[in-house]
Amino acid sequence: MAKTDIPGLGELRGVGPRIRDSLQQLGIHAVSDLLFHLPFRYEDRTRILPIGSLYPGAQVMVEGTVEHSAILRGRRPTLMVVIADGTGLLSLRFFHFRNAQREQLSRGTRVRCYAEVRGGYKGLEMVHPSYQCIAQDSVPAVSDRLTPVYPSSEGLGQHSWIKLTDQALELLRSGKLQLEELLPQDLLLNLQLTSLADAVQFIHRP
How far, in Å, CA of 137 to CA of 85, rounded? Predict the structure, then answer.
């Protein structure tokens, strides 16, 4: 793949020796390589659904207030958190958790969660959802576009991929990183195809 004007990974904020090694193990040695490390799926975090409208198999984002939180003892301890939004109840199940996490998800905490909905013993539940705690008087905006999910390896979470690709895309938009077209210009025009730079931008941030 022809590329020109290729900045190194050291130009990206947050890339130290550990992150650089993890990226290189995935074949990513330059900023331009990040642009061709493509998402394998997307999550729709553009809207919050009422808990009462959920069904098993749905991948959704919900928001509610913690009604109950407890550690269930068994072969392995499980943190169970029940949230409500006025339309229904939803259980959040965590098999791996820290004491600080239990304290964070205490009764009265407002939380926004994303995961697949499953059928549980006592109704619908999410297992290890991604979540954020929200101040009672705040109304944080939802995303205005789909959230990409990247192939990854140990030590590289999805939040890191978003931050890294954000920087790579900004270098592309500013002209500091340039990609050479793979198709002849007349073919692009005749077929009304978008440029390689625009296509890369869209696939990362649809």
Answer: 15
